[in-house]
Structures are given as structure tokens and as C-alpha cells.
Amino acid sequence: MKSHTEYLTFNLPARMAFQNITQYCEEAVRKSGIKEGLLLCNAMHITASVFINDDEAGLHADYKEWLEQLAPHAPIDRYRHNRTGEDNGDAHLKRQVMGREVVVAVTDGKLDFGPWEQIFYGEFDGRREKRVLVKVIGE
Amino acid sequence: MKSHTEYLTFNLPARMAFQNITQYCEEAVRKSGIKEGLLLCNAMHITASVFINDDEAGLHADYKEWLEQLAPHAPIDRYRHNRTGEDNGDAHLKRQVMGREVVVAVTDGKLDFGPWEQIFYGEFDGRREKRVLVKVIGE
Amino acid sequence: MKSHTEYLTFNLPARMAFQNITQYCEEAVRKSGIKEGLLLCNAMHITASVFINDDEAGLHADYKEWLEQLAPHAPIDRYRHNRTGEDNGDAHLKRQVMGREVVVAVTDGKLDFGPWEQIFYGEFDGRREKRVLVKVIGE
Question: What interface predicted TM-score (ipTM) does this complex get?
């Protein structure tokens, strides 16, 4: 069994933002030399997500509006977590809706994707550096 | 390390519907000959889910009602995504709540399940053919 | 390829409660002797979750309040599932928001975590024994 591990760093310029990171995952598969296996891609921070969906700007605006309704950022004193001095209580909730990680099949040396699947880094407490882990195992 | 990959196709007759696909996953494990490993099962489309829960019709009706409250289908102009000519903006949101994929342990040649765990394909924009990927890796 | 499987049993004293189970997962990795691979940790019951987030009591109180708003326990007759004689319809919904499982990278013999990542067992229908599966595969 082979394995390959990479750490990506992102610093998104807004509190909430999404970035397509599919190319970095494809490159990790290529570097790994793995033909059949699984790729894990996860946020290493607990106010961020990695998820798979469509690369369409209208949808991303819909996600932001919907997540803000489900877990509003303000007033920040609505979250007990913010009594610790943080203001990101909402981000911990939004991240649970969108998920921490994706596991993707690697088949014949490629990410085995449906027609519209793309991998996104989802940031809910941005404007600082955060890391994403990519690990490929297989043969 | 061995691996085995299958693609299942479903065409559910309603916009929102759930189908038990456990037997297909069990068969993939059997065909793989793998005794110890992991099974990945994921929707290949971004308006559908694969999730694990109970095979109980009342619960499935509860899920549908709840998801419709969290992300209503109509009016379709409430979603910016639908300005692209689609009417499935809600389906992209519902899929995030229910999840894209499941990863299941394979132990002693079988899906290592608790007493009520069953795998479901969850459709949120149905009445057309969509695919599900099943991949087993291990030894 | 090596593999190692463990079953943990928990009996949390409230309907809804969270327990940090990171140490049990770390121990499973140690016992496995695996240096590079993946760890799967999942609830084996369908009214419980395994998720990764912060070990902060205020945040956990926020999660409970938020989940109770998204899927209230009472009145229990609001869920068709409860017509089967159960009173845990809400627990099946809450578990979908928080997720069934986590997949964590094992790198150099350790859980490859960001600074605040901790693994939790999330209970939504407690006061009875339930099991969690931990499986590590790799080399």
C-alpha cells in the first residue's frame, strides 16, 4: 500500500467564502502514483469545511444566505461559545451543516467524479491562514 | 491491497425520494473478496445523497417534511442558482444536510453494521437517471 | 495492508450529550501499529453521531440549543416515526446534521489533526448502551 500526504494553506479574504480546491487534490493523486484507492480531504480547523458540490456562483450565494439564516453570526452574544472571547460561535455550527471532510474514490489514477462534482474549501471564520489536509492511500 | 469499483444507476419517480441500497453494497463487498477494509458509497450527482439511517416509512416522511422546511423548493426564484435556468436550488441545500457519502467498515467479509443501519440513496431532484459509486478497498 | 477494529460502548446519562472520545481513537491507532493510513470512527446506532469539533462547554451548549431548534423533541406526535411507539424521531434528524462518522488521516503513527480537532460521540437518544466502531487500515 502506498500513501501520500499534503497540507494546503488558505487565507480567504472574507468571513464566509468558498474556494474550488479540486486541482490541488488532482495533483496530490498524480504525485502519489496511486491508481486505485481513496483520497481524504479535510479541513484541519473546526470553523471550516471541505465539501463537494457545483462550481456555480449563484449557488454559493444561496449557501451563504441559507447558512446565515440557519446559524446567524450576529448578535454574537447569542452564542455561549463567544463568552470565551471568540466571535465565531456561528462558524462552528455552519461547518457542521457543510461537513468537515470528503472521501473520494481514486480509479485508474484519477478522482472518480460525476459530471459536476468539484471539491471546495468552505471558510466560516476567514481572514487568516488555515490548513487543509489531503491524503491518498492505495496502490 | 485489493480494490473493487461499481457504478449503480437509479431513476426515482419523484422529486424527493429515498431508496434502500444496502443489498448492492453488500454484493460489492462479496464480489471484492475483501475481508478487512473500507467501503465508500457516494452519490455522483450534487443534488443527491447517500446516508445511513433506519428503513422506516414514517421516518422517511419526517425527513422529507423537515428538509422541505429547511430548504423549500418553491418559490423557485428564491434561489439565485435557479437564474441559470435550473429549478433545483433547494436540492443542492438538502443534499448538504443529508451528506454526499458514507464510509463503512468491512470486517470478516461483511459490512460492519449496528442493528438498524441501512444505506440509502437520497434523491432531491429525481425523475432522471443518476449514478452512485461503490468502492471497496482492503485485503 | 494492516487493519485493526475496536468497538466502544457508551451510556450517556442524558437524552442529548457529547463525550470526547479522542483518547480511544488514539489508542486504537497505537494498538494497530499502523504508521500511514486512515481511521474510521462511526456511531453504530442511528440516533447518535461521531463528529469533530472543539472541546468547549459553551459550544456544546450552543449545539444542543441549536439542534433543539432545528429538530425539537416535543411534541413527540409531530414525528410520524413516533407512531411506531418510539419517542426519538427528533434524534434521527439531529444525527443527520451532526453526521454519522469521521475519517481521519493517520500520519507517522498518529492522528493527523489540526490544533483544536477532537473527536466526539454525540448522543441524541441516550440513557442506554450504544456502540461506536473504530477501524484503522494502512501500513
Answer: 0.98
